[in-house]
Amino acid sequence: MASTRSLDQWSVHRHLQNLAASTPKKTQEQSNHVFLSKPTSRRCAILISTLPFTLTSLPQLSEARERRNKKTIPLEDYLTSPADGLKYYDVLEGKGAVAEKGMTVQVHFDCLYRGITAISSRESKLLAGNRIIAQPYEFKVGAPPGKERKREFVDNPNGLFSAQAAPKPPPAMYSVTEGMKVGGKRTVIVPPEAGYGQKGMNEIPPGSTFELNIELLQVMPAEGK
Length: 225
Known about the structure:
Helix content is 32%, strand content 25%. It folds into two domains: 1-70; 75-220, Chitinase A, domain 3 (Roll), CATH 3.10.50.40. It has helices at residues 2-68, 173-176; strands at residues 79-80, 87-92, 104-113, 116-120, 124-125, 132-133, 137-140, 153-156, 159-162, 185-190, 210-220. It is an alpha+beta fold. The strands form three sheets. Strands 1, 2, 3, 4, 7, 10 and 11 form a seven-stranded antiparallel β-sheet that branches. A two-stranded antiparallel sheet has the order 5-6. The chain has two helices and eleven strands. It comes from Populus euphratica. One of its GO terms (molecular function) is peptidyl-prolyl cis-trans isomerase activity. One of its GO terms (cellular component) is chloroplast thylakoid lumen. This is peptidylprolyl isomerase.
């Protein structure tokens, strides 16, 4: 009887030793598992946190790269207009009708001074409102500047538009447009005497040379043709 009791006690004691020996090992395995998973989660967190910055930076880098790659036109590549002696360069030669003296044309124009757009037909204002629209400028090639500005109002799909309130183009545009084709884009170097003179205009200081960009949209035959 005593031997049986001793055997049972030995069995229980042995069982407890086995449990004690197995418990730290399991705990260690769990600890190792948790330890290994933490760096993975940390890496994911770092990647996720930097993702918005990366996505935000891509357009900025793209825009900066586009500005760096923008072609600078050498002065020797400019041609001289026979009508007024202005220097011009055809960025894009159109494929439509040719603008001739006496024809009425519609254009978009932008006057840039040191890279800043000072005057633009794409920034016209509607009558009795502050909404800005892109309103093509209409004039007669070779005519005295400002004659077309005597029109009262122009009604278009965007609303009632005042021709007198339209952005004022430089006198150079009335002559240097001759020879352009519909769809064409032309860059012109405008000196003060063919631009805004000693008064200046908006961001263009008095007596300053600036860049004029013209896009020919439409040509209408001269009267009597």
